[in-house]
Amino acid sequence: MYKSIVKRYLDIFLALFAGVVLLPILMAISVMIKLDSKGPILFEQKRIGIRKSTFQLYKFRTMRTDTPKDMPTHLFQNPEAYVTGVGKILRKTSLDELPQLYNIIKGEMSIVGPRPALWNQDDLVAERDKYGANDVSPGLTGWAQVNGRDELAIPVKARLDGDYVRKISLGMDVKCILKTVEKVVKRSDIK
Predict the structure, then answer these.
(1) Count H helices, E strands: the chain?
(2) Residue 140, CA distances (Å) to 65, 100, 146, 171 in order
(3) For residue 49, with 0-12 CB atoms within 10 Å meaning exposed, 13-18 middle and 19 or more buried, which class applies?
(4) Are the C-beta atoms of residues 49 and 67 closer than 8 Å to each other?
(5) Are 102 and 58 a contacting pair, CB within 8 Å?
(6) pLDDT per position as a tens digit, 61-120
(7) Rounded distance between C-alpha atoms, residue 156 and residue 168, angstroms
(8) Model confidence over 103-146: pLDDT tens digits?
(9) Segment (H or E) for 55
């Protein structure tokens, strides 16, 4: 019952609550982005959702507008060359992810689940298929996210996503959320 009904209602409630509470911060970030560099406030990117559907993921823009759009940042030769001044702060604090609250309200994402793969990350999507991790809504945070993030090899990340899918429960989601808060506060595994 948790996975099929309660989780969705909790996602909506938490995303709406966070959106209202964080509204002044969201507005301040928007102004800072506009003052820091030319371009839109939000960055949109095609991502893989539940059952390998695609959707537009929203983030605060942290990089210059001439940055390659469909490549994971950790694969850039010199990612720092593309990151804006405000973007560095947003990435270090993970505040760039906050617009995904809208994706959660729309039903494209969950608070907790496997992080949504880029539309062209066929290797990650194929590996997640082995564990059923493509059959749940992707999350703002997830088990692989709090256990290494981009430092993990794809097979390890997919296995951790599969571990989450097998153990989905309120307790597992609370554990992921608490570990996420700890990682953000300590700024560990964040580039």
Answers:
(1) 7, 4
(2) 24, 7, 11, 17
(3) buried
(4) no
(5) yes
(6) 999 988 887 777 767 788 788 899 999 999 988 899 999 999 999 999 999 999 999 999
(7) 18
(8) 999 999 999 999 999 999 999 999 999 999 999 999 999 999 99
(9) strand 54-60
Distance CA 43, CA 19 (A): 18
> Of 93, 113, 96, which Cα lies nearest the Cα of 104?
113
Give the whole-angstrom CA distance, residue 173 versus residue 33: 31
pTM of the predicted structure, to 2 decimals:
0.90
Give dist(CA 89, CA 13) in Å, integer.
Answer: 28
Instruction: Say if residues 183 and 189 touch (Cβ distance below 8 Å).
Output: yes
Give dist(CA 188, CA 191) in Å, integer.
8
pLDDT of residue 189: 58
Structure tokens of 156? 């390890």
**Nearest Cα to Cα of residue 108 among 138, 128, 70, 129:** 138
The alpha carbon of residue 90 and the mean position of all alpha carbons in its chain are separated, in whole angstroms, by: 13
